[in-house]
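Running log. JK asked me to keep both predictions on one page so they can be read side by side. First protein, sequence followed by its tokens:
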Amino acid sequence: MKPVARCTIALAVMLTLTAPAVAQKYQGVAVKSGRAAFKFAGKDLAFNHVEGGLQQVEGFTLATLVFRPDLKGKWNTHLNLVLMYQAPGKVDLEAAFTMSGLSMFSDGDVSRFTKGKSKCTITLTRATPTEVEGTADCPLLHDIGGEVRPPLTNLTFSATTK
């Protein structure tokens, strides 16, 4: 991949992980259904609405997913997942050119994976160009300023374009 393409994609991912979901337009094939269930800041949460897309980029599938409690709910609480994968297995969040990441937006605060600082494991149990599902545990997340934020654990998620 050319350096300009890497920079463009990296910028798009950074905006995806930090911008409110309401302002986003997704690339690729739109997801039709999905869900996420997890524990965040001591609360069990289940988000049954997903928006986003799955697209093919240089031999990888790039999934850009935004989970929220419901279709008509406020956008102040949602979970963003960006996953770059080729097959099921552990997602390498520390790779040099990874696009993968996780951000939890909650009432104006953001908790996110910060490369080299946060601790987060994402494992894909199904990873195809049209479907993705997996698990994640993020016992150490940070806000944009680098402050420690509540953990996000026991995440199970799925999304499909079918």
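And the second, directly underneath as requested:
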Amino acid sequence: MSKNKDVLKFFQAYIKEMIEIGGNNLPRAISVKSGSKLGKFYKDRGSSLEMEVILKQFYAGLNGKPTIKKLDDHTYDVSVKYSKKFCPIGGIYNPSRGSVFQENICIPYTRGFLSEIFPQMTTESKFLNCIPLNNQRTCHYILKVEEIKK
């Protein structure tokens, strides 16, 4: 097994242990904060402020091939294809782990990332396909964005 997969397995076991010890809020809070830090880095570097471009860069950084389709002013269809049936966050097929990683890592991390770049927006994600849940090579979800009413 490669060193990278060993690191990822450790990360996945660490997240699972954090949830067992500290409950769901601990990894969610860390994920939001980490995503926010990455978003700040993107903003400081002067990256594009277009949702499709930002999301493509975000998932390309995880070695995925993203396809982002704007369905309307508030909805994006996000599909990320990986070379193997392995999610860099959630790992291999393991249905007991899929939704745990979605709810505690994937969604909060993405939310923190996008909230930092687009502070005037809130996000909501609905997964249609998840590698650990469906044993395929694609992560697929619908992203809804709404402007925050002041």
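Observation for JK regarding the second prediction: The mean pLDDT is 87.
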